[in-house]
Amino acid sequence: MLRLPSFTYLQPTTLSEALTMKADAGPDGMYVAGGTDLYPNMKRRHQEPRTVISLMGIAELRRAGRRIGGSADGLTLGACITLTDLSAHPTTRLSAYSAVAHAAELVSTPLLRNMGTLGGNLCLDTRCNYYDQTYEWRKAIDFCMKKDGHICWVAPSSPRCWAVSSSDVAPVAVAIGAEYLLVGPQGERVIPAGRFYHNDGINYLTKQPDEILAEVRLPAPEGWDAVYHKLRRRGSFDFPVLGVAAWVRRDGRKVTDARIVLGGVASWPQEIPEAAAALRDGELGDDAIAEAAAAAYRPAKPLDNTDFDLSWRKQMTRVYVKAALEELRRRPG
Fold first, then answer.
1. Which of 48, 156, 202, 228 could join 103 via S-S bond, C-beta 3.0 to 4.6 A?
2. Domains along the chain?
3. How far is CA 151 from CA 125, 155, 290, 303, 315, in A?
């Protein structure tokens, strides 16, 4: 049985109190929300904080559905809203934000969605077949560079870690152009979702360790729509081997802008500009969809870091991008 190491658990009730606790704990302190990612990692000794600072007692982080500026310009979501509440929220469920709700409801199992949070999924640790093992297993083959070692077992000659981003909600957030509010010792800053992530398995976030992801701001639904499709081995609860977030803005039947973002294939949600370019200034016809799917297929380079055969995974990129765009085409413009 894997057991948690000993640690001090703190429960602040305000953001300022949480920041002070983190400053006192220093590098040995970590924030936690639902804990569905951190605690299993602690059991496997991937992460070993001596002080764990819970964010779940901070009321302002659990707000949902507040209109930005008190108007219909957008929607804000507290980072500690649970995935269950997010997927069932009436504003996200029955609006242009339905892709956000759908991605949330595809995460893991109901029990873990009851605990897991929006912010936790957006900050999810990267994964790979070699990293996601027990301490004893990793020690037996020699540790990887992501934790305690000096080699990436996915690509032994590589100078970087190739663990992949397995968030379901992050590709949708990047695709729809969401913004994140970060709060830290130096104050607040707002950054686009696409700039929150690095394509590096170790340093995969631009957020500083002492910053808190406090709020997610969704843009106003003005002429755009988005969908999310997910490939996984078991349809009931697995991490994505591939996630496809497709976003289009239309003027009547004409696509004026588009974004295609892939999850589960790189260390960050990977936007494919060439796929979006194939869709702009035309209709979502068969030829445009096929061209966009082919454009997403070309840069896909699966490695031995997740499940399934590598060549099959690459083929599925084309299949899933096509299916996502066909779903958007069926929806009223």
1. 228
2. 223-333 (3.30.390.50)
3. 18, 8, 39, 15, 29
Would you say residue 65 has pLDDT above 70? no
Closest CA to 115 of 81, 88, 78, 82: 82
Q: Which residue has the tokens 């909600």?
A: 169
Query: How does pLDDT run across 71-81, given as a tens digit for each residue?
Result: 467 999 999 99
User: Regarding beta strands 51-54 and 224-231, do their DSSP bridges make them parallel or antiparallel, or are they unpaired?
Assistant: unpaired
In contact, 247 and 259? CB cutoff 8 Å = yes
Q: Which one-letter DSSP state was computed for residue 331?
A: S
Tokens 């605990």 map to which residue?
115
Is the CA virtual torsion 228, 233, 236, 237 positive or negative? negative
Strand order of the β-sheet with 64-67 is 64-67, 74-78, 212-219, 179-184, 187-192
* Strands (E) located in the chain: 8-10, 29-32, 51-54, 64-67, 74-78, 179-184, 187-192, 212-219, 224-231, 242-251, 254-263, 270-271
Specify the amino acid at residue 75. Answer: L
Q: What is the pTM of this model?
A: 0.95
Fill in the amino acid letter for 55: L
Tens digit of pLDDT for each residue in 239-257? 999 999 999 999 999 999 9
Strand partners, 280: none
